[in-house]
UniProtKB/TrEMBL annotation, chain A:
<dbReference type="GO" id="GO:0000122">
    <property type="term" value="P:negative regulation of transcription by RNA polymerase II"/>
</dbReference>
<dbReference type="GO" id="GO:0005667">
    <property type="term" value="C:transcription regulator complex"/>
</dbReference>
<dbReference type="GO" id="GO:0005829">
    <property type="term" value="C:cytosol"/>
</dbReference>
<dbReference type="GO" id="GO:0046972">
    <property type="term" value="F:histone H4K16 acetyltransferase activity"/>
</dbReference>
<dbReference type="GO" id="GO:0140064">
    <property type="term" value="F:peptide crotonyltransferase activity"/>
</dbReference>
<keyword id="KW-0804">Transcription</keyword>
<dbReference type="GO" id="GO:0071333">
    <property type="term" value="P:cellular response to glucose stimulus"/>
</dbReference>
<dbReference type="GO" id="GO:0019432">
    <property type="term" value="P:triglyceride biosynthetic process"/>
</dbReference>
<dbReference type="GO" id="GO:0045663">
    <property type="term" value="P:positive regulation of myoblast differentiation"/>
</dbReference>
From TrEMBL, chain B:
<feature type="compositionally biased region" description="Basic and acidic residues">
    <location>
        <begin position="363"/>
        <end position="373"/>
    </location>
</feature>
<dbReference type="GO" id="GO:0051726">
    <property type="term" value="P:regulation of cell cycle"/>
</dbReference>
<feature type="region of interest" description="Disordered">
    <location>
        <begin position="600"/>
        <end position="629"/>
    </location>
</feature>
<feature type="compositionally biased region" description="Low complexity">
    <location>
        <begin position="600"/>
        <end position="613"/>
    </location>
</feature>
<feature type="region of interest" description="Disordered">
    <location>
        <begin position="316"/>
        <end position="398"/>
    </location>
</feature>
<dbReference type="InterPro" id="IPR019542">
    <property type="entry name" value="Enhancer_polycomb-like_N"/>
</dbReference>
<dbReference type="GO" id="GO:0005634">
    <property type="term" value="C:nucleus"/>
</dbReference>
<feature type="compositionally biased region" description="Basic and acidic residues">
    <location>
        <begin position="322"/>
        <end position="332"/>
    </location>
</feature>
<keyword id="KW-0539">Nucleus</keyword>
């Protein structure tokens, strides 16, 4: 039994948490930070295998000090006791985890649940050679697991980061373990695998956009809105810094770090103007601001209106202040969004709901003016008060409507968040199923359709069509050819889902002319 | 049939997929696993998040139930929508317009202050409102301005008062409050702002820094060899190739021109032969007539052969109407080429006079069709042929070498075009002669002959020239001048410095003060005096009215060579340190100066110099030299480059100038011009230019230049050869008396020619290829024929540096 005073950053222990069903759980959590407020210690905990958005400050009485695991200074033995996870969808889950938390000596062993004694990784920059020699990871495809990049996790989805079980060449690289090491070791790591196939997973769309091997040392890629490079994922950005945001009628609890001015992060509530999204420190300031701010809608052109739903288009270059404010707000709810660079190359499509007070922001998505990788969405967010009410799907549908007008297929920028994945999968499934089920058989023949046709009709990128068909298990190989099978199960489920989907985009209400940004100079 | 016996084909997105529904559906057991043929698509999520508990639960729930169950949703932190004061906060209603909302981004920036008052401010405001009325908005504007005017350093109260248009008490109160509040503020500003990136890169990893500017990165394909570096290399290569093309084109053009010139020369000789002009009389006649006509046109166009078409059309040639001019050119050219006479190397550092120097650009080339090999002096075009020359350059290390990046300017043809026969020579020489009697306002005294330049940062730099009259000139009192100009001519000044021993000589080198003053009075000698009110006013202060007789152009040599030596002393190469832009800037400044001078001049002439004054104070010359000491390295650079790049006047010009000087000495000093006497003088002089040229070149080599003022001596034309020797003596005298350290530096080198000086000489030598083809210089070249021996002797110094002297 440890004392409360001994609980430091990096410790792991079960922490009391109440789940949605109001039941108490004791998931394993990691202490990310400790603070002392008037003699009371507060611990910032990250529940392992839970999304960061659930991280929170807890008092000591929620800690199960009996089961505390202290961070070890050095990981001496590459004991990998953990068994491969039982979850079918992520066979590699045991080997993943967070090299980037360089601030924390023992921040990371990933699959805490399965590890009775977590092993600390002090060594974050081990070379791939050593990595490859690691026994005990039989199910780790070498091609996708071995590249260790201390600050370039740009190859993230294809290339796993070092496993906790990695043997530790303690002498060599540990000294470099600064928060932001130079990428020298990363370069070597890449170079050490000449034969490595970059595209080990087919149809990956996102990897090539990032220059992991020859890119800039520390800045994220310049295209897109989402970081796939987590080199900046230090302890500061791992923790929420804003306690509460008041926006119009709503009080939002941020999910993630957002780089609002640092002096505002200590406030109990950060006040935002509902329409221009300006941040002020107090209600009084907001009152004063509202006497000067006459906006009642997002400061852009309305390009869609049906009922109370409107979409406004905002140019990130022309309206910097709003775009930045919007990004700051969005960052509170988007983990992988990066605000590293300016907003110039983006358009922001803000969805609003009108009432007598004005056009209230519901959600938005941003979109690169020119995407080299068929992205039609960079970041997409439904504000928490409006979530789970169909607005997310409406946003997605709108983004594909725009792509249809442009005559392109598109796909959201990666990585997707968990909610993003669910929403997109749901949208894709419903959209594709809608098409498939509406296909009529011609002259007695079985209806048929190509993947390309689906893609063209929906503007959903081909790869997403395939993955959806796979995910829904619709695609089968039968008698020497691929067929699509629509089971009763699927059909019923789809029909039930479509009953609930009331909000739809009406393409007739869209007044949108795409611009050719490539001819306009730089954004 | 074993379903494992074959392998599924790859999924073809273009191939129709039949859809099986309901009862039609085959037993899935009959279906083959497609895992190998259709690889699992990535979800697009971060791997470690993909395995998160809630997501996995939600996914499996969906797969089981085909729809989300309430309990299986991914939990998120709560959000409340119960702000009860909302309606009070957001007052009023907004009616939805019928039309789509369209907004002009420019209208967004209203002038409202970014600062929002907080409750603390409100307290202050309430307190202040007891004494005076201040509205919240007013207060916010004040704070906003203070904030935006301050960076790390707060604005001072004084600045605040300037910034804020309020009454002082209010400003003080708000300012004090603001300073206090700002000190307690934890943020960098009272207006919360997103942290900005710093240029040093220290904020690259600061998580609070957002919205960094994107550095434009070249779009190159990844994983290809054409990365950014090689792309830049290719760009560079392309630039250099295109530059080479330009050079080659210019060379081509030059050679064509040369050929033309050769043909013309041939033609001229033939014509002369037909006319029987074996002694060059007709040619001389032509020369003599020509400048008169030229006077009707502006000097600027003189070098442009086209306008001669109107003037003289004795020999018609479709391409070269001004054949007369060409005749002389060609003749001279022809004689020169075989011998490569390079002695006309007296550098008259070209102080731009009335006009901008013609910077030869590609577009100007047509204008210069008559210049043959001079075209390799194009700015920015390093002469490709200068290398081989240097190899057999007898001057060895002292030889002039063209430098890459240095602009070599075209000759000032308008200068060389003026021959001394010109009846209105005085008019023109005024523009040419650089130095004039100058007085300063503070200290109020005459500093002798000087020339004004604008230096770096707008500084006015006086290049002084020492003359043997300095002691006398120091006596000149501006008041004296004032009274003088107003008084009658009979006023007699007893001079403290009367003539020094000149009696033994054929000429007198010095004038008495009274003589000078009388010269000034009679407008023969002009005196520049800055306006008393603003010394710095460059527009108005310069009133340089120059008289040909009183100042000698040669003095330019000294000034420029001073600069030259100065730079070489500093270890800076003469020309290489000057970038094109710098030079252009200087050039422009000078041009501007010239224009001002010209304007002033004309103005002065009209007003008959009634306002001119000279300063009486005769101070030690050591203090007065401070002006010339301000010659900083930049201007020194410039001066040096001016030497190098200015079109060197030919020896003929120099001799002409001397001639004019002497003419003026001889008392032909009417402001209206020297009229015909000049002609005779010139004729007389035509026997001597060789000598003077010799001397000049030598003096350049010895750094003792001929920058004395022979102008004031009273010798007759006949005594000129002797006069020259006198002048040389005077030079030595002068140099001793010069106080400026730079000049001393020159003197130190008089005994042994310095390499720089030699270089200078060769520079001049190479430069004079330009005047060779100019019509007026050709005149003197004819005269020079008589003096070939001397010239040849001189050529040892200067002969060799002609680049591509192709005939």
């Amino acid at each position: 039994m440890a004392e409360v005073g001994e609980v430091t950053e990096g410790c792991r222990l079960p922490v009391l948490r109440r789940n949605q069903d109001n039941e108490d759980e004791w998931p394993l959590a990691e202490i990310l930070s400790v603070k002392d407020i008037s003699g009371r210690k507060l611990f910032y905990v990250h529940y392992i295998d839970f999304n960061k958005r659930l991280d929170e400050w807890v008092t000591h009485d929620r800690l199960d000090l009996k089961k505390i695991q202290f961070p070890k200074k050095e990981a001496k033995t590459p004991t990998k006791n953990g068994l491969p996870g039982s979850r079918p969808s992520s066979p590699e889950r045991e080997v993943r985890k967070t090299l980037d938390l360089s601030l924390q000596p023992a921040s990371t062993p990933a699959s805490g649940k399965t590890l009775p004694i977590p092993v600390q990784i002090t060594l974050r920059f081990n070379l791939p050679k050593e990595r490859e020699a690691v026994p005990g990871e039989p199910d780790q495809p070498l091609s996708s697991s071995s590249c260790v990049q201390p600050n370039h996790r740009t190859t993230k989805r294809k290339v796993e980061v070092v496993s906790p079980a990695t043997p530790v060449p303690a002498s060599t690289e540990t000294t470099q373990a600064s928060v932001f090491p130079q990428n020298g070791s990363a370069r070597r790591a890449v170079a050490a695998q000449p034969g490595r196939k970059r595209k080990s997973n087919c149809l990956g769309t996102d990897e090539d956009s990032q220059d992991s091997s020859d890119g800039i040392p520390s800045a994220p890629r310049m295209t897109g809105s989402l970081v796939s490079d987590r080199s900046h994922d230090d302890i500061i950005t791992r923790m929420k810094n804003i306690e509460c945001i008041e926006l119009g009628r709503h009080r939002l609890k941020p999910w993630y770090f957002s780089p609002y001015p640092q002096e505002l992060t200590t406030l109990p509530v950060l006040y935002l103007c509902e329409f221009c999204l300006k941040y002020v420190k107090s209600l009084k300031c907001l009152q004063r601001h509202l006497t000067k701010c006459d906006l009642r809608h997002p400061p852009g052109n309305e390009i869609y209106r049906k009922g109370t739903i409107s979409f406004f288009e905002i140019d990130g270059r022309k309206n910097k202040s709003y775009s930045q404010n919007l990004c700051l707000l969005a960052k509170c709810f988007l983990d992988h969004k990066t605000l590293y660079y300016d907003t110039d190359p983006f358009l922001f499509y803000v969805m609003t709901e009108y009432d007598c007070k004005g056009f209230h922001i519901v959600g938005y998505f941003s979109k690169e003016k020119e995407s080299t990788e068929d992205y039609n969405v960079a970041c997409i967010l439904t504000l928490p008060p409006y979530q789970r009410r169909g607005y997310g799907k409406l946003l997605i549908e709108f983004s594909y409507e725009l792509s249809k007008v442009e005559g392109k297929t598109g796909t959201p920028e990666k990585p997707l968040s968990d909610l993003g994945l669910l929403s997109y999968r749901s949208y894709w499934s419903q959209t594709i199923l809608e098409i498939l089920m509406n296909l009529k058989s011609e002259n007695g023949e079985r209806p048929q359709i190509t993947i390309n046709e689906i893609s063209e009709i929906t503007s959903i990128k081909k790869e997403d069509v395939i993955s959806t068909l796979q995910y829904l298990n619709l695609i089968n190989y039968y008698k020497g050819q691929y067929i699509l099978t629509l089971s009763e199960d699927i059909v019923d489920g789809h029909e039930r889902a479509m009953l609930k989907r009331i909000l739809r985009i009406d393409s007739k209400c869209l007044h949108f002319t795409p611009k050719d940004w490539s001819k306009r100079g730089k954004w | 049939m074993s379903k494992l016996s074959f392998r599924a084909r790859a999924l073809d997105a273009a191939k129709p997929l039949p859809i099986y529904r309901g009862k039609d559906m085959p037993d899935l057991n009959d279906c083959v696993s497609i895992n190998r043929a259709v690889p699992q698509m990535p979800t697009g999520m971060e791997k470690e998040e993909e395995s998160e508990h809630h997501l996995q639960r939600a996914i499996s729930a969906q797969q089981v139930f085909r729809e989300k169950k309430e309990s299986m949703v991914i939990p998120v932190p709560e959000a409340e929508s119960n702000v009860n004061y909302y309606n009070r906060l957001y007052k009023g209603e907004f009616k939805q317009p019928k039309q789509f909302i369209h907004i002009q981004p420019f209208n967004l920036d209203n002038e409202q202050p970014d600062y929002d008052m907080d409750s603390e401010d409100e307290t202050l405001l309430n307190r202040l409102n007891r004494k005076m009325e201040i509205k919240p908005l007013q207060f916010e504007i004040m704070i906003d301005r203070l904030e935006k005017a301050s960076s790390n350093q707060l604005v001072t109260l004084q600045e605040a008062k300037l910034l804020l248009n309020e009454d002082d008490y209010l400003i003080k109160a708000v300012y004090d409050y603001w300073v206090r509040k700002r000190k307690n503020c934890r943020g960098p500003s009272l207006i919360p702002q997103i942290k900005q990136e710093k240029r040093d890169g220290s904020t690259n990893n600061d998580p609070y820094v957002a919205f960094r500017r994107r550095t434009e990165k070249m779009q190159t394909r990844k994983n290809r060899k054409n990365d950014e570096a090689s792309y830049e290399k290719m760009l560079k290569l392309r630039r250099e190739f295109s530059r080479a093309i330009t050079i080659l084109e210019m060379i081509k053009r030059r050679e064509k021109t040369k050929r033309e010139l050769l043909h013309l020369t041939l033609e001229v000789v033939e014509k002369r032969y037909h006319l029987g002009d074996y002694g060059g009389e007709i040619l001389n006649e032509v020369k003599l007539n020509r400048p008169d006509k030229e006077m009707s046109t502006t000097p600027a166009t003189l070098h442009n052969g086209n306008h001669h078409k109107i003037q003289e059309c004795k020999v018609k040639h479709p391409h070269h109407p001004s054949l007369k001019e060409d005749v002389s050119d060609v003749v001279r050219q022809k004689k020169k080429y075989p011998k490569k006479p390079k002695i006309e190397s007296v550098i008259t550092p070209q102080q731009p006079t009335t006009e901008p120097l013609p910077v030869i650009s590609k577009s100007d080339i047509k204008q210069y069709d008559f210049h043959s090999s001079d075209e390799d002096e194009f700015p920015q075009v390093p002469s490709p042929v200068s290398e081989p020359e240097e190899e057999n350059d007898p001057d060895g290390p002292c030889a002039f070498r063209r430098r890459a990046g240095c602009q070599y300017y075209a000759p000032r043809l308008d200068q060389t075009n003026y021959s001394c026969e010109n009846s209105e020579l005085a008019e023109l020489d005024k523009l040419r002669y650089r130095h004039c009697l100058t007085t300063l306002t503070v200290p109020r005294r005459c500093i002798g002959f000087a020339r004004r330049r604008i230096g770096r940062g707008g500084r006015v730099i006086m290049d002084r020239i020492s003359t043997e009259h300095d002691p006398v000139l120091k006596q000149i009192d501006p008041e004296m001048l004032n009274s003088f100009s107003s008084s009658s001519q009979t006023v007699d000044f007893s001079s403290n410095f009367s003539r020094t021993n000149a009696s033994n000589k054929h000429c007198e080198n010095r004038l008495s003060l009274s003589e000078i003053l009388s010269n000034i009075r009679s407008c023969r000698l002009q005196c520049f005096q800055p306006r008393l009110l603003n010394l710095q006013d460059s527009d108005s202060e310069e009133c340089t009215s120059r008289k040909p007789g009183q100042t000698v152009n040669n003095k330019r040599v000294s000034a420029a060579s001073v600069a030259l030596l100065n730079t070489s002393k500093n270890g800076i190469s003469v020309t290489g340190g000057i970038t094109e832009e710098q030079f252009q800037t200087h050039q422009q400044q000078l041009v501007q100066m010239q224009r001002q001078q010209l304007a002033q001049l004309q103005q002065k002439q009209q007003s008959q110099h009634s306002s001119q004054q000279t300063h009486p104070k005769a101070q030690g010359s050591s203090t007065s030299d401070c002006m010339s000491k301000t010659l900083d390295s930049a201007s020194a650079h410039f001066a040096a480059s001016a030497v190098v790049s200015a079109p060197a006047p030919s020896r003929s010009e120099v001799t002409k100038e001397q001639n004019t000087s002497h003419n003026n000495i001889n008392g032909v000093v009417q402001p209206s011009g020297t009229s015909k006497t000049l002609y005779s003088t010139n004729m007389a002089l035509s026997s001597s230019p060789g000598i003077s040229a010799v001397q000049l070149v030598r003096t350049v080599g010895h750094s003792t230049t001929n920058h004395l003022i022979p102008a004031l001596c009273t010798s007759s034309p006949q005594t000129l050869p002797m006069n020259n020797s006198c002048l040389t003596n005077a030079v030595h005298l002068n140099n001793v008396s010069v106080v400026s350290p730079v000049n001393v530096h020159i003197n130190a080198r008089t005994s042994a020619p310095s390499p720089t000086a030699l270089k200078l000489a060769t520079v001049a030598a190479s430069m004079d290829r330009v005047p060779k083809v100019t019509p007026s210089s050709a005149i003197s070249s004819i005269a020079r024929e008589n003096h070939e021996p001397e010239r040849l002797g001189l050529n040892g110094i200067a002969e060799t540096t002609v680049a591509m002297e192709v005939t």
